[in-house]
Write a structure and sequence with these properties.
globular, three-stranded parallel β-sheet, about 150 residues, alpha/beta, two-stranded antiparallel ribbon, 6 helices
């Protein structure tokens, strides 16, 4: 697009702008807050709250004992699979990437919540390219281009 040779870009910089989310949950035995902010520097409370609201998990977190200080068991065993996926998506939003690849990353999220998340992404993250790999046909409504 800018006629710049891709080899002139720093590989680490490129990698830091791409987030890959699959259906597996990568949560650690730590607080929700620490899981959300893992790998994110200079984060503020407002950004964290925005990200969890974008993924429709804010009310769930506020309903937990200790809220953001709730300790997630290894692999997220004390949360539902959908809750784990929403926390993982929120964590990716805090990194403010240029590209997010969703590889069945919402497979355990109900259709209504998925719709809320993707509409929020469409409205708030206009400069972020989202690539969807999915078996769910309803994902098509969020896509501008389709590749088979």
């Amino acid at each position: 697009m800018n006629n710049k040779d891709i080899k002139s870009y720093n590989l680490e910089t490129i990698r830091n702008q791409i987030i890959y989310l699959d259906q597996k949950k990568f949560l650690f035995n730590d607080t929700i807050l620490n899981n959300l902010t893992l790998g994110v520097e200079n984060i503020n409370k407002e950004a964290v709250i925005k990200a969890v609201k974008m993924t429709n998990i804010f009310d769930v977190i506020n309903g937990l004992d200790n809220k953001f200080d709730f300790v997630i068991e290894e692999g997220g065993k004390n949360l539902s699979l959908g809750q784990c996926q929403r926390i993982s998506i929120a964590r990716s939003l805090l990194k403010n990437p240029l590209i997010i690849i969703f590889d069945e990353a919402t497979s355990n999220i109900d259709v209504e919540t998925e719709k809320i998340i993707f509409n929020n992404l469409k409205n708030e993250y206009k400069k972020t390219m989202c690539i969807f790999i999915s078996h769910r046909q309803n994902i098509l409504e969020y896509c501008e281009k389709l590749f088979f």
